[in-house]
Every structure is written in C-alpha cells, then in structure tokens.
Prior knowledge:
single chain; 20 strands; Rossmann fold; Spore Coat Polysaccharide Biosynthesis Protein SpsA, Chain A; alpha/beta; six-stranded parallel sheet; eight-stranded mixed sheet
Amino acid sequence: MPIPALILxxxxxxxLKHLIxxxxxxxxxxxxxxxxxxxxxxxxxxxxxxxxxxxxYKAEKISSYFQNNFHSLRIHYIKEEEPLGTGGAIAYALxxxxxxKVLILNGDTFLxxxxxxxxxxxxxxxxxxxxxxxxxxNRYGFVDIQNNTISGFAEKSSVLKDGWINxxxxxxxxxxxxxxxxxxxxxxxxRDFLEKIIHKYPVQVFKVNDYFIDIGIPVDYHQAQKDFASxxxxxxxxxxxxxxxxxxxxxxxxxxxxxxxxxxxxxLENVVDALKILRQKFGRIIIVTNQQGIGKGLMTxxxxxxxxxxxxxxxxxxxxxxxxIYYAPQLESMKSIMRKPNIGMALKAKEDFQDxxxxxxxxxxxxxxxxxxxxxxxxxxxxxxxxxxxxxxxxFKFRDLFxxxxxxxx
Length: 410
C-alpha cells in the first residue's frame, strides 16, 4: 500500500510575526513562493500521491491557495479547532488518515531527503527519525545515538558543538503511536512521546548530510530566501539531468515561424557561457524540442538535422557536450505522446540513458507546454521570462539561461 505524507502546518509562527503577519508560518514567502510549496514539490517529484495537511491558525490561507491538488498530489486538510501541540496534532490527524504508515514532516523545515530510500529501508519499523548533522549549533537539542538507534536527547545549551539533530521528518506506524501516547489531548510529540518511547522500544535513525533549514527564526528565514532562489536546497550534482527547450532558451525564437535553416539560427546572448557552467554541474544535458514545422511541411527532418549538427558542433568546439537532442515533428492536432506537454521525449531519454531520475531532473523552457512537460514527468520546472505571468505553473523563474547558470558559479 502506498504511504501518504502528513505535513504539520498549524503553528502560529510567533518568532516571525513581524516578518509574516496574518499568515501561517508555512505560507511565509520564500523566494517568491510559500515555503509549503517547496515541501509539496519535494513530495510530488519523489512519488508521494497523497498528502494530508494539518491546519489550524489562519487555515483558509493554506486551503484556498493549494486547494485539493498539487500537480499529481492529492491534498486533504485536517483542521485543528484548537491548538493541540505537535503530538496532539499528529494523533488527531492519524485518527482520520486511513493508512497504517505515514511520512510526517514539519511545515516550517525543509530537509533534502531521499524519501523513496527512507521509506523502502524503514517501512517495517514502527518509528524512524531522519537526523541531520550540524556544526557548532546550540539552537537545537542533539540526539545521542548508539548502534543506529536513539539512546537519548541532549538539551539545548549555550555551548557550540557538532552533532546530530532531529530534522523533523518521521516514518511512523499509526497504531504504534496511538497506543503509546499520553491520555491528554494536548501534548508534545518530542517531549511527551519521543523522549519516553526510546526507553521502551528501539527507535532507528536515518542519517542525512544534505541541505536542511528551519525557517522558525528571522536569520534562517532570510537565509532561506537566498538558498531557495539559487536552488541550493536541491543539492544539484552530477546525478542530476538538465532538460532544455531549444527555441527561446538556446536560440532566438522566430515569432509565428520556425527556424528552418542554419542561417535563421541565432544564438541567444551568453548561452554558450551558460552551458559551460551547466555542463560542469549536471551529469547530463538533453534538448527536447517541439518542431511541428516539419509536420506542416515548412521544413524537412534533414533541414532540422543540419541545424542540430551546427548547434552540436559549435558547442563541441567549446568543449560543451549535449548528450542528445530529441524532437517532436508531429502536428499539435495529432496530440502525440512525443509532443510537449506530453512526456514521450522524456521517456525516450530515460530509455536511452537509464540512469536518468526524473526526481533529479530540471526542465528549462519559455512556454506553458514546457512547464507542463516538467510537471507531468515529475521534474522541477524552470521558466525563463522577464514578465510576471501568474498562469504559468513554474517552480522557479529566471530571466534567461545565463541567469539560471549563475546559481552555480557564485
């Protein structure tokens, strides 16, 4: 049975009140989007299908924004009529969730976590915690570990030290939890459940060294603005694949026309410099482009191949390798699976390069169909534009390819 996620999003956010008045803390604007958006995106690209959001303070701000769907995610809301504490909120929600196992996340923290691995390795456990290693921090209480199980919790102190902290992500057996909680309705998950349960049962841990942030205090809230704008939270490396649209991203788009010859192909400014940077960062770079000019009889596949040969040869002279170019010559009216926003070209790429992981892929484009292609395939969608176009469902927005590449050169 698939495992759903529960996000705790009912807190007041007292320490951020002067920065985010009148909204729940998970709705705090971070790099142009609510912080909760990034949690939902993380769940969506990693294959979670259902998410329950525990809401309380200003609950309508969350439910009216996200409503009942987030791309392929189905969203359910569980409203606390009064504050119940973290433990009480989880108990109240689990009594309404028809699953035995639930992935639980705090709505004000983000951990770059391999959710699939976390679930697959620990699905049989009653309780597993994700831990993050931090250096010289006295903000968090530290977790004492012996033989990969928790032996105790150290209180917060003024002494700076390195250690493992509770990252606020849990894989929990519902029946185990509900049978081991205190009798009162309002209680703390950490103090009233975790700290007591470790003396009765082994609680295993999943250690993570990737990106983590808690936006609960102003200094980290401001840091999140920088991190999420530059995609630092994704920990992009050579295991990632970059998918690129062509016209409007690499070369100038001809309005109401098609690039039919090499003479009509004009590089956009700084694209070569951008690709030099991106080639060093991403393991693969793949171009996916709709080319219905062929279907309309305005050009031939031979014409297109000459253009692409010119593109590849020009970049090769700069030691920039494009792994492959896929194109869809079909007419839009044919509704071919190969034509964006359908994901035929992505599936063909994964067939040719089996190490491609769509949850570790970014699609960059300048159109609605590009963004829909990304979301349909379970990728991150980067939209290139200078305009404010709210109807385009992008995850991140940049002016051009070079603006995006600067994330990895600074």
